[in-house]
Design a protein that fits this description.
The chain is mainly alpha-helical. It has a three-stranded antiparallel sheet. The protein is built from six helices and three strands, in the order H-H-H-E-H-H-E-E-H. The relative contact order is 0.07. A hairpin with a 2-residue loop joins strand 2 and strand 3. The termini are far apart.
Length: about 180
């Protein structure tokens, strides 16, 4: 190994041509240049880049609604808000988790448009919006109708096959 010529190296031990001025580069920071982000970045930015590279669009409203409904804490928050508007502290009161954790759940519900927030001074008032639930229910009804039709057709085909197998003399022979 050759000895280093310290005049061509920075204090960080990098060759001066590679030395950077300013704070260390962090691709996970929000203000990092978009072209510097890679597919291996952790978090939302990496996931979004992978989706865009695969030709997928961002999450749909239905996806956000179903993700929001997947957690029992968020369902309990919605159940409380179905009774009427409430302050964030009132909503957080029955849970054995921090106010910060409840706020994160509320943000997910807001992104899904299931909860709306109003501010009156320092108070944040939450209200429930059922429109995304109605859209999800319509999607579920369409899926149910589609699959019921498909499964009915499959059942009819299987019954016809069973009848044909039970009565072999009824088969039509081709010459």
């Amino acid at each position: 190994m050759q000895p280093r010529n310290y005049s061509t190296y920075s204090r960080a031990g990098r060759p001066r041509s590679l030395a950077r001025s300013g704070p260390a580069f962090r691709p996970d920071r929000v203000d990092a240049p978009a072209q510097a982000r890679t597919f291996t970045d952790m978090g939302e930015h990496g996931a979004r880049a992978r989706q865009e590279a695969a030709g997928a669009t961002s999450k749909t409203d239905l996806d956000r609604t179903l993700v929001a409904l997947a957690d029992p804490t968020r369902r309990a928050i919605l159940h409380r808000l179905a009774a009427g508007p409430a302050r964030v502290t009132e909503v957080a009161e029955p849970f054995d988790i921090s106010l910060n954790s409840v706020s994160k759940h509320i943000r997910i519900l807001e992104r899904a448009h299931l909860v709306r927030r109003r501010r009156h001074g320092r108070e944040h008032i939450l209200t429930f919006d059922a429109a995304p639930l109605n859209e999800a229910a319509e999607w579920i009804a369409r899926q149910r109708a589609f699959w019921n039709t498909r499964l009915d057709a499959l059942e009819a085909a299987l019954r016809a096959e069973d009848r044909a197998a039970a009565h072999p003399e009824r088969r039509v022979r081709r010459a």
